[in-house]
Design a protein that fits this description.
There is one protein chain. The protein has helices spanning 9-27, 37-53, 63-87, 103-124, 126-151. By secondary structure, it is mainly α.
């Protein structure tokens, strides 16, 4: 413990300023989402899962086409995640769910698409699962983020 520096008044004051700034940022009303973001988020989600699901639809296609669809789908989903982290993140908080939507409403919103995807996976296999999750999940993302945007007072 001899190598630990002794606390000083200046260090304590700096730590207090940092803590107060973090608290003020957490309490501050979040900035509204950009107008283009809900649509981009939903479309990237839908296109990414749909392109990945096409590998089971295009069984007679050359492997280059199916690999290209998989790669493009994975890139779209990665871009969607990066945008979500950059745009929906508040200072000090990693946003996992939209701010103005209760967890119950969020679970209910995704329950119908997941039930539909499960049914279609029995009928159409993995292609039905991925394509349905992509299209319906992308639509739910779009609608929920549009609602959040409206709740933050965006114009």
């Amino acid at each position: 413990m001899e190598d630990t520096p002794a606390p000083s008044a200046a260090r304590a004051a700096a730590a207090l300023r940092i803590a107060e700034a973090a608290r003020a940022a957490a309490v501050e009303r979040p900035q509204p989402l950009p107008a283009w973001y809900p649509a981009l988020n939903g479309l990237l989600f839908a296109a990414g899962f749909t392109l990945i699901g096409l590998q089971w639809v295009l069984v007679t296609a050359p492997w280059q086409l199916t690999a290209g669809c998989q790669l493009a789908g994975a890139v779209m989903l990665a871009v969607q995640v990066v945008f979500a982290q950059r745009i929906e993140r508040r200072p000090g908080i990693i946003q996992t769910v939209p701010r103005f939507i209760s967890r119950r409403r969020l679970a209910t919103a995704y329950l119908a698409p997941l039930a539909l995807a499960t049914v279609l996976s029995f009928v159409f296999g993995l292609a039905g699962l991925f394509i349905t999750v992509g299209v319906s999940g992308g639509l739910v993302n779009w609608l929920l983020l549009q609602r959040e945007r409206a709740m933050t007072g965006a114009k």
